[in-house]
């Protein structure tokens, strides 16, 4: 337990299960109060109850739809009322949408970008006043994706949204540095979760149903074959998160074998710099 974190408050969107719930266990294990927010209100409540019982820390829960700014504002008010503020904000959201670029519809793009990008922006905007009202150690975690480091086919909308989250997070880190609020980008790889099911459940009913094609997943896996250790439990994925936040690291990687692909891209970018500087 990190004694200086006892009594501080962590707020997690997507806290009803998977990666978000694992983040909650990490913070509760450090003695922090935890607010679990999720579009599935029952799941958020179960996470909060499990943390309160297992770690004897104060908890709160609330339904939140990050696609709706009013919903996030209401959740921020609820957290302030129940737990008194926010010291760590985890904007952890990411609906998934498979599909070849030429088959993704405007509805597909609008939904993914609204939730993954604007949902992240809205979450930060709603909770930033609570962070600014606190003093001392304060952090923001934005969930990007390891696919930003090693893009795969059939994930164009999802990956574009996570590239945008990375750009937003890097800018946010620069803008908040003078206020002492650290920003860390989290790049999770594949995990044993209900991510695909929960994404389908979260798709608004007024949109056309997702046009599922089993070939999309096959094509992705053939393009980026899985290696040992590429799919882990959420708790394993967040094993280094708290240490990275303590050190105010700008990036936190969870797991996966994507380094070679990332290094190929970095080498190509270095070569582009070389050509520019030599011209």
Notes on the protein architecture:
This protein is an alpha/beta fold and 279 residues long. The protein has a single domain, classed as 3-Layer(aba) Sandwich (Rossmann fold). It is 50% helix and 14% strand. The strands form two sheets. Strands 3-2-1-4-5-6-9 form a seven-stranded parallel beta sheet, with helices on both faces. It has a two-stranded parallel sheet with strand order 7-8. Strand 1, helix 1 and strand 2 form a beta-alpha-beta unit. Helix 1 packs parallel to helix 2 and helix 3 runs parallel beside helix 4. It starts with 8 loop residues before the first strand and ends with a helix.
Q: Which key features would you list for this structure?
A:
alpha/beta; single chain; 14% strand; 50% helix; 9 strands; two-stranded parallel ribbon; 279 residues; seven-stranded parallel β-sheet
Please state roughly what percent of the residues sit in beta strands, choosing from under 5%, 5-15%, 15-25%, 25-35%, 35-45% or over 45%: 5-15%
- Main pleated-sheet profile: 7 strands, parallel
CATH superfamily, called what?
A: NAD(P)-binding Rossmann-like Domain
Number-wise, the strands total 9
Oligomerization category of the chains in this entry:
single chain
User: Number of domains in the coordinates?
Assistant: 1
Structural class: alpha/beta
Shape: globular
The CATH architecture name reads 3-Layer(aba) Sandwich
């Amino acid at each position: 337990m990190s004694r200086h974190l006892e009594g501080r408050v962590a707020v997690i969107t997507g806290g009803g299960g998977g990666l978000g719930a694992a983040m909650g266990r990490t913070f509760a294990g450090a003695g922090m109060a935890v607010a679990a927010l999720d579009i599935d209100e029952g799941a958020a409540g179960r996470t909060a109850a499990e943390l309160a019982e297992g770690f004897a820390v104060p908890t709160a829960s609330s339904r939140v739809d990050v696609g709706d700014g009013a919903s996030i504002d209401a959740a921020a008010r609820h957290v302030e009322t129940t737990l008194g503020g926010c010291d760590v904000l985890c904007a952890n959201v990411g609906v998934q949408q498979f599909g070849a670029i030429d088959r993704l519809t405007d509805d597909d793009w609008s939904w993914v970008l609204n939730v993954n990008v604007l949902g992240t922006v809205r979450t930060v905007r709603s909770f930033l006043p609570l962070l600014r009202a606190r003093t001392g150690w304060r952090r923001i975690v934005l969930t990007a994706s390891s696919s930003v480091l090693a893009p795969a086919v059939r994930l164009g909308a999802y990956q574009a949204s996570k590239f945008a989250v990375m750009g937003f997070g890097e800018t946010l880190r620069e803008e908040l540095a003078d206020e002492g609020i650290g920003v860390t980008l989290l790049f999770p790889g594949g995990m044993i979760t209900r991510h695909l099911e929960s994404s389908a459940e979260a798709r608004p009913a007024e949109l056309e149903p997702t046009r599922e094609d089993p070939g999309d997943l096959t094509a992705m896996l053939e393009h980026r074959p899985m290696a040992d250790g590429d799919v882990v439990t959420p708790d394993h994925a967040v094993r280094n998160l708290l240490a990275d936040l303590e050190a105010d690291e700008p990036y936190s990687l969870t797991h996966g074998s994507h380094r070679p692909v990332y290094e190929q891209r970095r080498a190509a970018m270095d070569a582009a710099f070389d050509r520019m500087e030599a011209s």
